Amino acid sequence: MPRRRNRTINQIDKNKIIGMRKQMAKKTKRGIALFVSLLMTPCLILIFNIGESFYPSWLITHRTQIIGALLLAIIVVIVSSPLIIEVNSNPRPLSGPGKNPKLDLWK
């Protein structure tokens, strides 16, 4: 009888862990979307020359380089977003000196 109880408790724990992972993935997706939108805002402002009369002279001379750097950062974040989501929602435990059977320094 206790075995069934343990199984149901383990199943509840697994369901709770899965729910927590899904929640963490949703939060990470929102964070990535917010970060990309924050990078897109100055990029679009520079591309469409909004408020160009208020730009300092160094910004006018290096506008294309800044747009290129912002677009590169946006592309890198978008391409690596599945990896970022997976790492944040499903962390792996790190093996240390007491957990690696091939490198057991504490015996």
Q: Which overall shape is indicated by the principal axes computed on the Cα atoms?
A: elongated
Number of helical stretches of at least 4 residues: 3
Structural class determined from secondary elements? mainly alpha
What is the string of SSEs from the N terminus onward? HHH
Radius of gyration over alpha carbons? 24 Å
Explain what this protein looks like in three dimensions.
Helix content is 73%, strand content 0%. Helix 1 (2-47) packs antiparallel against helix 3. The chain has helices at 2-47, 57-61, 63-89. 0% of the residues are buried. It is elongated. It has one domain (2-89). It has three helices and no strands. It is an all-alpha fold.
Short description:
With 107 residues, this protein is an all-alpha fold. It has 3 helices and no strands. The protein has one domain (2-89).
Keywords:
107 residues, mainly alpha
Topology:
Elements: H1 2-47, H2 57-61, H3 63-89
